Amino acid sequence: xxxxxxxxxxxxxxxxxxxxxxxxxxxxxxxxxxxxxxxxxxxxxxxxxxxxxxxxxxxxxxxxxxxxxxxxxxxxxxxxxxxxxxxxxxxxxxxxxxxxxxxxxxxxxxxxxxxxxxxxxxxxxxxxxxxxxxxxxxxxxxxxxxxxxxxxxxxxxxxxxxxxxxxxxxxxxxxxxxxxxxxxxxxxxxxxxxxxxxxxxxxxxxxxxxxxxxxxxxxxxxxxxxxxxxxxxxxxxxxxxxxxxxxxxxxxxxxxxxxxxxxxxxxxxxxxxxxxxxxxxxxxxxxxxxxxxxxxxxxxxxxxxxxxxxxxxxxxxxxxxxxxxxxxxxxxxxxxxxxxxxxxxxxxxxxxxxxxxxxxxxxxxxxxxxxxxxxxxxxxxxxxxxxxxxxxxxxxxxxxxxxxxxxxxxxxxxxxxxxxxxxxxxxxxxxxxxxxxxxxxxxxxxxxxxxxxxxxxxxxxxxxxxxxxxxxxxxxxxxxxxxxx
Length: 485
Prior knowledge:
mainly alpha; 22 helices; about 75% helix
């Protein structure tokens, strides 16, 4: 098979890995049930949500491993960590292990959360190296599928288990990344292609498939549609959509056998501001601006999504799985959106990454204040907005780290950047849990709008402050990005 076809297969392998790598995103779907099974308080439950993000504090180890070890080995280490972290928890709640304390569960969750970093690092490194001229497009495509993880896991659980969902989620979280990792390991490797050909036809086919997948995911997440489709039928549709990207390799192979035409347009390499390591990066003001923009933007959004199960329950909304699927589906489109903009608007109208973050953080702040409205419609709209914007910022950040600090040390640098996620998860999540407990008068469960009212006000205000920081970052990097046009 031509090397360009292998190049696309590496992208498809990354897509499959990302699709099952968001194991932490399905936590809200079974958090309430887990809370009951383990007799936990809201603060303890919040600590478990933080523990999953805390694994990212040790993400730099996966970055260093990617420098010195074969990528297939880094991938298998990551999936094995998830197998242990989630697998032991599964054995515990199925009564096959009896002596497991709350803190044992906490540290196992940290281990499972760290496994995500290893798989992400492999996907990012392979995609950036194999599609250096179109890194934002390629990275956005792959990471968009991680936005579908919660939808995929929820669809499987709905199809195979009506009860005991917490057990099923933990079982799937433990084995699915291992299975897909074994399948994708031969594909996710660096391909030596001197000049990528016919990128146009490949990306167009991929965009069509990806958008169709996203539309299907959103539609089947809406109650009036999902009620008319059996859980098994929904699952079959999702599985088929994950195999459709294989058509890209076929189409590229056919195109390579045809005469070179207008689809073989040249693509300019994206500029790099500077190539620096992590120690120099930590001395840059722009890094800290970028760090706090991410903290008050995408991380706040992730904290909201982690608490979505409890938020929905406090508002008297019972169909949490549907809401989690909706947030997952809109997060998918959010992660994809920067790729579409980057590919089809390469001209002078293209805005910089920091400016894009400004445009995304302002609606997120507004969505937090919209949650002060007690209607289910407000909950749906806010969840969709936060899902889209959080996904988009997450996708943009990969290229932002590369452009501002260089691709050479990306695997370590970006893991330092996303270390803000566990920090924010702890600070913002713990604050929400304390307010929840106070409004519940110290009892295990709080019901009513007051449970999260002050939390939404604080989160919205912090997000507006993050928007201001993003404006400063945009002003400081405007000259660099204007030279790239």
